[in-house]
Amino acid sequence: MKFADFxxxxxxxxxxxxxxxxxxxxxxxxxxxxxxxETGTFYVEIKDGHLAIEPYDYYDRDASITIxxxxxxxxxxxxxxxxxxxxxxxxxxxxxxxxxxxxxxxxY
Length: 108
Hints:
Layout: H1 3-14, E1 26-33, E2 40-47, E3 50-54, E4 63-68, H2 69-76, H3 82-87, E5 91-95, H4 97-102, H5 104-107
Parallel strand pairs: 1-4
Antiparallel strand pairs: 1-2, 2-3, 4-5
């Protein structure tokens, strides 16, 4: 699947997620790797009870994740636990791992 198609499907599916009860700011950049078509970057930010999912680098982030598109799809479909992906090296994290695990309330 091409990154652009994947991103638009993901954004449509999750952008309406209710994050009003998440008071802390959260900004995570997700770097998808794989074939040239699968590779791309987007960020997820929760700020003031609002969720943003945008296809850009995010320089003021809490952390960045690098994961293959296929593994990320498995996380989204609950076939791969994010913590397991991290501990087995299928997902690398640079920055605040605790903030990354907060994404589970949105995607997992």
